[in-house]
Write a structure and sequence with these properties.
heterodimer; A: mainly alpha; 3 helices; 80% helix; elongated; B: mainly alpha; 10 helices; 2 strands
Amino acid sequence: MTDALIVIALLLTAVTATAAALTRDPVRQAAVLALLGLSLALLFTVLQAPDVALSQLGVGSALTPLLVLLTVRRVRREEHTDERRPDRAE
Amino acid sequence: MNRTTRLGLFLLAASVLAAALVAAAGELPGFGGAHHPYGERAVAAALARRTANTVSSVNFDQRAFDTLGEESILFGSVLGAGILLRLARDERKRRAAAEPVLPTTRLFGATLLPVAVLTGGYLVAHGALSPGGGFQGGVALATALHLAYVAADYRVLKRIRPLAALDVADALAAGAFAALGLIGLAQGAGYLANTLPLGTFNQLSSSGLVAVVNAVVGVEVASGVVVLLAHFLDQAVEVVPRGEEA
């Protein structure tokens, strides 16, 4: 049972990590990165490392994607300084 | 450098790395076994210092000096990001606009924010006892606060975020970690040695230095992450080039 869970979590991590590497658009990549963080947290949990899982959940699934999204928002606003409302570029 | 050279260099480096990894991992205990030499020693050392959470014992007692390095890296990165993202000469701040939010989103945020802050606080407070600790709880606390941005707008987040105090708290906590190490030195045991009273096993006040350093790290990480996100949010929401209509 635990072995099956470990295999599922490992496969999920491999799939989401590959997807994150192959996604070129930063906004989508941030979403995939959050999913990767989630599957890593799952993997650490089934491997009985709840401390690491919690760090991974906080940093990998929440913080990193948020920083990426905020950076993209700022950079995109700079790119289209046309008539569009600049703070609603996303 | 053309594609073939790059590929050749990669394959060479990858094969050396692979060989080194295989050589290094050959003597490791099998995957998922019940016994692990390092784990057994770490658990014994943690129990001897009456620390229920062995991971926290490793982080804040047995390998406290490593953690001091990691916390300094975090502090340095927050400082660096703050300096890089400061208001440049050709930029100015505009007032963040009030933004419309769906009532359900507002309800979701208002309900979840206190729960998330409480969870973060619990994780920090019980770091020496159960999974979690200063780092995990600190990140949870900091991100919980930003539910205000999700559920309302940047103005509300700014009202509930004491940024000036957190700026100072980040620096003080980072310094406090380094200073706490001097206790062990003063008692002749060595820098960051756990010489505080150990208390009763599995009580909040147990584990001596672990609980104190854990709390300090909680303050540092929580305030550091809030300050870091504040610089990024300012850039995304408030900072505009000088002269641009907003």
